Amino acid sequence: MKLQLALDLVNIPEGIALVKEVESYIDIVEIGTPIVINEGLHAVKAMKEAFPNLQVLADLKIMDAGGYEIMKAAEAGADLITVLGATNDSTIKGAVAEAKKQNKQVLVDMINVPNLEQRAREVDSLGVDYICVHTGYDLQAEGQSPFEDLQTIKAAVKNAKTAVAGGIKLETLPEVIKAQPDLVIVGGGITGQADKAKVAAEMQRLVQQG
Ligand SMILES: O=C(CO)[C@H](O)[C@H](O)COP(=O)(O)O
User: Fold this and answer.
1) Looking at residue 73, which CATH number applies to its domain?
2) Which top EC class is named for this enzyme in its record (predicted)?
3) How many CA atoms lie within 13 A of 18 on its CB side?
4) Is the CB of residue 45 less than 8 Å from the CB of residue 75?
């Protein structure tokens, strides 16, 4: 099981400073969608250059032009790139084909997919690397969490690895780990804490003991 730190509400220098604090406790650093919107793929390039030993995920949430957008993220140095499960199969197939060519990985974000079980099975047959359940900020604010959805995809997905994101905190991490995802994605649960290194270290301990 791996731990991914999601950076969303920071600029490039703030993001690099933050990762320096927790570098040894995480496996993957995510350049979140708001950073890509604010700073472009330069943020991915800057993070990869600053931390060549970490994997960098570009949270592009690709909805169209799968092959092209994967190619651009790969050029910037991303190791993993996100595509939306809500898009059509052609976009996902194009993304997977380009990612394989570039030796990169595709994580499909199932945010707001209504027929989760059925779509997870379909996406699983397209050769993607990860299928991720995700409760976004707006639904987190309404009290929702991704924990039940994780059980759903754990039962449905046979080929891809599974991932979970959306409001995970140190207190809720043990419940998440019980469902045995391959990847746990944490943003505010680390970035919003006063002692980020302490929380990240404890999260790494829990994730590694599985
Ligand atoms: O992709 C995202 C928002 O769309 C976030 O990166 C993801 O939800 C993790 O952040 P948090 O743990 O703060 O919810």
Assistant:
1) 3.20.20.70
2) lyase
3) 24
4) no
Number of the ligand 1 atom closest to the C-alpha atom of 192:
13
Torsional class of 122: left (φ above 0), alpha (ψ -120 to 50), beta (otherwise): alpha
Domain that holds residue 161: 2-209
* Residue type present at position 80: L
* Site of tokens 């974000």: 109
Q: Whose CA is nearest to atom 6 of ligand 1?
A: 6
Tokens of 1: 């099981």
- Our answer on whether the CB atom of 146 is closer than 6 Å to any ligand 1 atom is no
What ligand 1 atom has the least distance to the C-alpha of 189? 12
Residue whose CA is closest, atom 11 of ligand 1? 187
pTM of the complete model beyond 0.90: yes
Cα–Cα distance list, 9 to 135, 157, 203 (Å): 17, 31, 21
Is the CB–ligand 1 distance for residue 189 below 6 Å? yes
166 lines ligand 1 (CB under 6 A): yes
Structure tokens at 145: 């969490």
Please count the structural domains in the chain.
Answer: 1
ipTM greater than cut 0.95 = yes
